[in-house]
Automatic annotation (TrEMBL):
Coiled coil: none annotated. Residues 1-11 have a biased composition (Polar residues). PANTHER family: 5-OXOPROLINASE SUBUNIT A (PTHR30292:SF0), UNCHARACTERIZED PROTEIN YBGL-RELATED (PTHR30292). InterPro entries: Glyco_hydro/deAcase_b/a-brl, LamB/YcsF/PxpA-like. This is LamB/YcsF. GO terms for biological process: carbohydrate metabolic process. Residues 13-25 have a biased composition (Basic and acidic residues). It comes from mine drainage metagenome. Residues 1-32 are annotated as: Disordered.
Length: 273
């Protein structure tokens, strides 16, 4: 069993990560999980308001044609391109936990990175980051049995890629130990528990639908490295990137309000470099 580096340093960044920003933040969104609807689809309307996107790789959602179209749209907007690999679970949208030995996890992730990477290359772009999806994301955050093979695949595929993951977490610690750049991730449209974890989705108050509340949450993360938890307590939360869920009922309005509000406060919207 590989040794897991100590996480007791709390919410700090890995050695390859820049210091916590107070004048800029990345806004990332999950795209390519449905079909592209020319001129009016949510993906296309989200792109002007975000600085990086996580594109579904075809196992939990999406398909090659949708991914290629999403890549072209993102490149036209100058948005950083990321892979969004998940478990093979279209029925459950990749949100159901699965059990796999390390070799299977590596194969599942490598397959998706290779497919999306080829589409990005064909479009003349370059992959910028990886953000796991759904249950794969949450299992890797806490369990080295999934974090280690995931990180190993990314390092072999392209060691210069960023990994988007909350800090502290098992995944972020292992990624840093392998030399990957980790962009600590916070969330605009999710509430937090006292221990810094996200409120489970099965709770009725797990999601933030009010753009003004989401803006206050993100501003607090950027300016103070603090988030107000569901019960009202102030919780440390360092982030270089803020995740938005493109499948939310008000995804576009939320992204627009965040981008406009942050810029009005002197906070730029930019992908990690």
């Amino acid at each position: 069993m590989p040794v897991i580096p100590d996480q007791s340093s709390g919410h700090g960044l890995t050695d390859r990560s820049p210091v916590h920003p107070r004048d800029g933040i990345d806004l990332n969104a999950d795209l390519g999980e449905g079909s592209i609807q020319g001129g009016g689809g949510v993906d296309e309307r989200l792109l002007p308001w975000v600085s990086s996107v996580n594109i579904a790789c075809g196992l939990h959602a999406g398909d090659p044609v949708t991914a290629a179209a999403t890549i072209r749209l993102a490149l036209a907007q100058g948005v950083a391109l990321g892979a969004h690999p998940g478990w093979p679970d279209r029925e459950g949208f990749g949100r159901k936990s699965q059990t796999h030995p390390p070799a299977e996890t590596r194969a599942i992730v490598a397959y998706q990175l290779g497919a999306l990477g080829a589409l990005v290359q064909e479009a003349g772009g370059r992959l910028h980051h990886v953000k796991p999806h759904g249950a794969l994301y949450h299992q890797a955050l806490r369990d080295p049995a999934y974090a280690i093979p995931l990180v190993e695949v990314i390092v072999r595929f392209d060691p210069e890629l960023w990994l988007y993951a909350p800090q502290p977490s098992v995944l972020a610690t292992i990624a840093g130990a392998h030399g990957l750049r980790v962009a600590a991730e916070g969330f605009a449209d999710r509430r937090y528990e006292t221990d810094g974890t996200l409120t489970p989705r099965d709770r009725p108050d797990a999601l933030i639908d009010d753009p003004e509340e989401a803006l206050r949450q993100v501003t607090g993360i950027v300016r103070e490295a603090i988030v107000v938890g569901r019960s009202g307590e102030r919780i440390p939360c360092t982030a270089l990137t803020i995740g938005l869920h493109g499948d939310g009922s008000q995804a576009v309005d939320l992204a627009r309000r965040l981008a406009e509000g942050l810029r009005a406060s002197g906070i730029s919207i930019r992908a990690p470099v």
